[in-house]
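mind reviewing this stuff:

——
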Amino acid sequence: MGMQKRATWQPHTHMEILIMMNSFSKTEIFKIVAPSLLAMLLFIFTLFGIALPASQKNLLHQKQLMLVELVHTVCSTLEHYDALIKEGKISLAEAQGLAKEQIRTLHYGPAHKDYYWINDLQPRMIMHPYRPDLEQQDLSTFSDASGKHLFTEIVQVVKKDGAGFVPYMWQFNDDPQHVGSKLSYVRLFQPWGWVIGTGVYLDDVHAEIAKISKKLIYISLAILFFIAGISFFIIDQQVKNLRQRQLAETEVERYRQNLEKLVEERTEELQLAQSKIKILNGFLPICSNCKKIRDDKGYWNQIESYIRDHSEAEFTHGICPVCAKELYPDLDLSKLFPAESTGTEGQKNP
């Protein structure tokens, strides 16, 4: 009947799959990468923007608290000697001499080189373990490497607040050739008019901060790499899932299109068959004598040829009892048609 060739499903080629797997939109990529990337950026910001500065500030604060406790301890020693004076056991000069020499020997720190010094409110140096050349000298005009009159500022601080922190430049302990930034805590011992002070070198603090920061960075980087590894694993799984989803959606779309095409073809076939059936159901010009049928082109055709060309019916030829008797009147046809009627309608073929 001249039917069209039906469409059949064809699998994807390797190139088609590669093109499809690389066809993610920017929005899809952003949705996959953004959460992990944001988590890592947040971790880095927390580490370098909050954790490290906070640890540096905390370390410096701990050093300041340490200086306060150390100076308070020395002031307790002075209070002890002052109590002996009040009890009449020793004189002021004896008490000050004993206290000065005892404080001179006090050292602390990793190398036991950190020290205390004493000056008065003039200001005049009472005791300094590494600068004995300054003892009993007037320090009102003494300045550090930056030109700061540090002892004058120390006196101003203790007169105003009784105690406080003063930054300045000073030699590193017993090394006069090495000068660095120093932060000292000073406190006034009011009964004697002495100022007790001790400090830390900021270079040492910065080195300690750098050491702690380096260790913290190493630990944080290990954590960051661990997070990155997990994130990349999650991203890889999400990409695979997205690729599988896209493949599935593409396959479904191909099946849908193929099904639509098949339905269209089948519909066309049915419509064609239906149109031919309608021709046979319509009015057919037929000769009342020879029973030929006239087609739509004006030609007369045998009825069996016409029906065969316009339907799927096929013909086989026989003879009815009536025609057999007319054509062969001399033959005994009772054996061929034992139960047949001689009517003209409803005859059965042998």
User: Anything to note?
Assistant: The radius of gyration is 57 Å. The chain is about 55% helix and 15% strand. The chain has a mean pLDDT of 81. The first helix runs from residue 14 to 21.
